[in-house]
Write a structure and sequence with these properties.
The complex is a heterodimer of chains A (308) and B (277).
Chain A (H helix, E strand, L loop, with lengths): L1 H52 L1 E2 L7 E2 L3 H8 L1 H32 L6 H13 L2 H11 L6 H8 L11 H29 L3 H9 L4 H29 L3 H7 L12 H11 L3 H31 L1
Antiparallel strand pairs in A: 1-2
Chain B lengths: L1 H35 L2 H4 L12 H11 L2 H32 L5 H10 L9 H11 L6 H4 L6 H14 L2 H9 L4 H12 L1 H17 L2 H6 L8 H11 L4 H21 L1 H14 L1
Helix pairs in contact in B: 1-14, 3-14, 4-8, 4-10, 4-11, 9-10, 13-14
Classes of the chains: A mainly alpha (308), B mainly alpha (277).
Chain lengths: 308, 277
């Protein structure tokens, strides 16, 4: 009795396992598309990119193995270093005013004000506009001769600036596009962060006699730290990948003095206008290392700054 | 007295905010000014700052210079296809992760989150080579297929489905004999509608504006998307700025309409997503 019981149990168990596996089939099929696409177009290219970077290749002819030569050239390539410096300088010129202004706007919007919804929409519109369109519009504002900005300078009796012939002018134009496009986005995120801080905390601080600056630095900023961290990291990753703004504004060369040559623009220029696929892949790795390094540094800085 | 101080404070807050709004809106205003005037009206001192009567002429010039209508249709097609695929695959996967238990669920979801870390720019060159091998270079397949399902959307759908799809509804569906896919279609999707709306707007805006990858992979000048067409326009006709602006205006307006249709909820969702992560 007991023996047969066990036997049938086993039999049933086997059948059930098989049935269960078949039962899971639709479940796995439901999530499979993402993993298949990622394997083919996300994971495989990473290894493939390493392989390509060990070769000299124009994308058409035969590949020639060159070992680490591409990377050796990369670390001594002046243009690559110029592109790193440009990217970092533009990042600083854009991120600091952008996050500061975003914080100010979020505070103003958080002060129980009317038309908040309309303000949020108005501040967010730049973010959904295409960067190509923005770069074209800003190109006319920063134009060398008849740009709007120069007309304003002229009207108030100042000297005109050849914005797009000047290394700093180019950087200012690019940075101002980034600020214009992303300040509203970051303000909306800060606003959501501010709204998640319980009002009780502010009341308690007021009762204890804290001043407004004290409340700002002791309550708001520390509680907002995760949100600030989020915005710093996203703007780091975004800023390191700057491409469209300089490409439209000053072209594939990066403009006079290569002042607008960012890292991704350099990658594009080498890989897709000069057909240096091996070197392009190596630049991709250089870019990756710098993004990781810079994100890690920013992460630590923001974490530390709030702890005190 | 306190009332006066208060309303002055309010007014000054509005004043500061309105300066910001003016800066946000100004480039759009300037775009319309330029595209309704001639280049000569703009490139002089002082430039014309109001609207002019030349919009139709400028639009005509755009249509004569580049295949605007063609690239417009291409862009609509690519955006719609991409959005439909993303909504289907991401909602199905997110719904499954949220409401079903299966061996490996946790590990698979962690892997999914891990893919956020994979940097896109690393794969530009190899991806182009892969596309060349598949014969997809110059084809819209290269734009749409790699992005048919994405980690962000699945994550988003899962978060929403966890709270929105009730187990008793699923049980009722099972009793009625629904299989997995019919549960997703008949029980899941109707409840997920708000999350689908956000992901749909987000995906279509993102696809519409995408520039780097289309620029790399769409090598046939007759089969391009709007953003690439715009960059050709400014590259070739940079002296006729009014015409370029008219093209930019036409390429931008559809998107702003899509955004304004769902803007309030969309902005709230963007913020919620950032806070959550």
């Amino acid at each position: 009795m007991s023996v047969t019981g066990i036997a049938t149990g086993r039999e049933e168990g086997k059948g059930r396992t098989w049935q269960r596996a078949a039962g899971y089939l639709p479940v796995y099929a439901s999530i499979a598309p993402f993993y298949i696409l990622f394997a083919v177009f996300g994971l495989f290219p990473i290894f493939f990119s390493l392989y390509i970077s060990f070769h000299s290749w124009d994308g058409i002819g035969p590949m020639r193995f060159v070992g680490l030569e591409q990377f050796e050239y990369l670390v001594t390539d002046n243009n690559f270093w110029i592109s790193i410096v440009n990217t970092l300088v533009i990042w600083i010129m854009s991120t600091i005013p952008m996050l500061f202004l975003a914080l100010v706007i979020a505070f103003l919007l958080n002060s129980q004000i009317r038309y908040r919804g309309a303000y949020r929409v108005a501040y967010f519109i730049p973010n959904v506009t295409s960067i190509v369109a923005i770069a074209i519009i800003f190109g006319s504002i920063f134009g060398n001769h008849f740009g709007l900005l120069n007309s304003v300078l002229h009207a108030i009796g100042l000297h005109q600036v050849q914005w797009l012939n000047n290394p700093w002018g180019i950087k200012v134009a690019i940075a101002s596009m980034v600020v214009w496009r992303w300040t509203g986005y970051n303000a909306i995120i800060y606003l959501a962060g501010l709204q998640s801080i319980p009002g009780v905390l502010y009341e308690a601080a007021r009762v204890d006699g804290a001043s407004t600056p004290q409340i700002f630095f002791r309550i708001t900023i520390p509680l907002l730290r995760p949100v600030i961290l989020f915005t710093v990291i996203t703007s780091t990753i975004g800023g390191m990948q700057l491409f469209t703004e300089p490409q439209i504004l000053v072209g594939n060369s990066g403009g006079p003095g290569q002042a607008g040559l960012t890292m991704v623009l350099y990658l594009y220029q080498q890989a897709f206008t000069k057909n240096l696929f091996g070197y392009g892949a190596a630049i991709g790795w250089g870019l990756f290392v710098i993004i990781v390094l810079f994100s890690a540094i920013n992460w630590r800085v923001v974490q530390r700054a709030g702890v005190r | 007295m306190a009332l006066v101080v208060r309303s002055i404070k309010r007014l000054s807050v509005h004043f500061l905010l309105l300066i910001g709004v003016a800066i946000s809106i100004f480039p759009f205003y300037w775009m319309v000014v330029m595209s309704t005037n001639t280049t000569g009206d703009i490139f002089r001192f002082p430039p014309k700052m109001g609207f002019g009567p030349h919009l139709l002429t400028n639009i005509q010039h755009v249509l004569q210079s580049i295949n605007f209508a063609g690239s417009f249709i291409n862009t609509v097609g690519v955006s719609v296809a991409q959005t439909v695929f993303v909504l289907l695959f991401d909602s199905l996967a997110g719904f499954t992760f949220a409401k079903f238990d299966f061996p490996g669920r946790k590990v698979l979801f962690l892997i999914l989150l891990g893919t956020f870390m994979v940097p896109a720019q690393l794969s530009t060159v190899p991806l182009f080579v892969i596309m060349a091998h598949l014969g997809w270079v110059g084809s819209f397949k290269a734009l749409v297929i790699p992005g048919m399902a994405n980690a962000f959307g699945i994550f988003w759908m899962r978060q929403y489905a966890q709270g929105a799809v009730h187990d008793d509804l699923l049980d009722a569906g099972r009793i009625d004999g629904c299989g997995h896919f019919r549960l997703w279609w008949h029980v899941g999707l109707p409840v997920l509608r708000p999350a689908l709306a956000f992901l749909g707007i987000f995906t279509s805006i993102y696809t519409w504006n995408d520039y780097f990858w289309p620029l790399v992979v769409l090598i046939n000048p007759n089969r391009i998307t709007l953003q690439v067409a715009l960059s050709q326009l400014i590259g070739i006709y940079s002296t006729d700025y009014s015409m370029v602006m008219a093209g930019t205006l036409m390429a931008t307006i559809p998107l702003i309409i899509v955004f304004l249709l769902g803007s309030r909820q969309f902005i709230a969702d963007i913020a919620a997503g950032a806070i959550r992560s």
